[in-house]
Amino acid sequence: MRVITGTARGRRLEELPGLDTRPTTSKVKEGLFSAIQFDIEGRRVLDLFAGTGQLGIEALSRGAAWCDFVDSSPAAMRIVRRNAESCGFSGRAGFYQRDCSAFLDRAGERYGLIFLDPPYASGALEKALERIAAIDIVAGNGIIVCESPAESTLPGLPGPYEKGREYRYGKSKVTLYRRKA
What is the pTM of this model? Predict the structure, then answer.
């Protein structure tokens, strides 16, 4: 697993051992970042189910201003910290070992880009989407990027949120939501 492009291009990222974490494949990551490539620069990012941190790190490499990494697993947070440090991004990152609901309930920031890639069968994606819309932590013209199984149907969100395009990559799907300004 490597950073695709930007200031940390080619940097190898550590992965978590075992099968508890499902890293985003290179094909999905490339497609996802192609879809949002002009919406990253200068934004505050939230990588809510961080795992290895690869999505937030890729955004930082491409010019995001800041990334908050959140994961409930102590092992995952150790890997995220090491990966961010090895890419030189520790000074532009916050690290939170918390359950996503606990983090969202205390979120005091607005984000221009949010990545949601929880374990597929957990039901956490739909809960996180609903909570994010309810507390409205997405900045104007912000984007929520969701990775889910290809056969899943994600819900619509109330205004000012708008469900956008879906991109299929084998067994995975990326769905974009946008918040109108």
Answer: 0.95
Indicate whether 8 belongs to any domain: no
Measured from the Cβ of residue 151, the count of other Cβ atoms closer than 10 Å reads 8
Q: What is the CATH number of the domain that holds 164?
A: 3.40.50.150
Provide the domain count of the chain.
1
10 C-beta neighbours (distance < 10 Å), count = 10
Question: CA-to-CA distance for 43 and 66, rounded, in angstroms?
Answer: 7
In the chain, the DSSP E strands lie at: 44-47, 66-71, 93-97, 111-116, 138-149, 161-169, 172-179
For residue 80, the enclosing domain spans 26-179
Instruction: Show pLDDT as tens, one digit a residue, over the chain (181 residues).
Output: 899 999 999 999 999 876 556 677 888 999 999 999 999 999 999 999 999 999 999 999 999 999 999 999 999 999 999 999 999 999 999 999 999 999 999 988 999 999 999 988 888 999 999 999 999 999 999 999 999 999 999 999 999 999 999 999 999 999 999 999 8
* Separation CA 50–CA 68 (nearest Å): 9
